[in-house]
Each structure stands twice: as structure tokens, then as C-alpha cells.
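note to self: dont lose this again. the chain is below, predicted strucutre after it. 177 aa total, dont forget to put it in the shared folder this time
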Amino acid sequence: MPATPECGPNSALLTQVPATWRIALGFDVGRLRIGVAVGDTLTGSARPLCILPTRQQRPDWEAIARLMVEWRPDGLVVGVPRHADDTANAMTDAALRFCRQLHGRFHLPVATMDERLSSWEAEQRQSATTGRRRKNPAHLDAQAAAVILETAFNPRFNPPVGVLPLEKGELEDMAHA
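---
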């Protein structure tokens, strides 16, 4: 999955989620709902957490704030959709706007991951778990958020990640850490 480092003018390319992160929340942003997962960078694992319905295509910021208080993440990972040819699609701008809003509201670093194939992988996991091919769209969104997080945590599959924000010198500091 290619990186989507266009989250903001201060973003920088990193080869992985910062090692200083322990707990992260992942988001799969859609028009009707946002899938949320929680992950642990030490184990590289993530699990679906919940589905947050959007209100008139706007995030439920109060519910997200409650998750921030409950989980106290070190960072956030947002899946950014793109077409197979790496061009933006109808949801790309909405996901990037959500990325900037998350950072602005909660003052946490936000990494972006290309979320292509995350829904397919989520469906495969659901099928393997339940033995059924029937989709549960709401559950798939949270499972897709877990896939996005696990991809971000796994250095073998983890391409450069866009992280917002990094101040001058932070990239060099992280390289020497």
C-alpha cells in the first residue's frame, strides 16, 4: 500500500509509525460511519473497537473525544482511500480533512495509510471467523480500521507513512532514536 503523505503542509515521510507510540487508534472513514480500532505497537496487533455513525456526513466528535479519554492513544492512524492507479477518489479529501481535524482537536500525531484492500481484507477475516461470506458493513468498517493499524505497525508491509505534524529537526531526531 503506497503512502498518502499529503495530510498537511507540515507532514513528513517516515518509514514507520514512530517507535515512541504504544497505543494507537485507527480510523476507516466513510460517508455513513467511521470504523474505529485500537492497536498496540509492541505486539503489532489491532482489534475492531466500534462503529461511529456520522451525522450529516460529519464525525461524532463527542464520541471520538470519549474514545481519546478512554484509550489515551499516543497517535492516530487514518486510512486514506485512493483508486488503484493511486489517484484521489471521492472520499480522499474527506479522509484528509478528517485527519487534519483530528490533529487540530486532539493535538496528537496523525499518520495516514493508503487503505486500499483494507475492506477486502476485513471481509476475508470476517468470512474466516464466521464461515459466512455475507457482509456486515458496519462490522467491516471497524475490522478495516484494524487492518489499517496492523499495516501501519508492520515494518515488512509498512511503506512510508505521512505523519502530521513534524517540526524541523524531528525527522532527524527520530532517525537517530
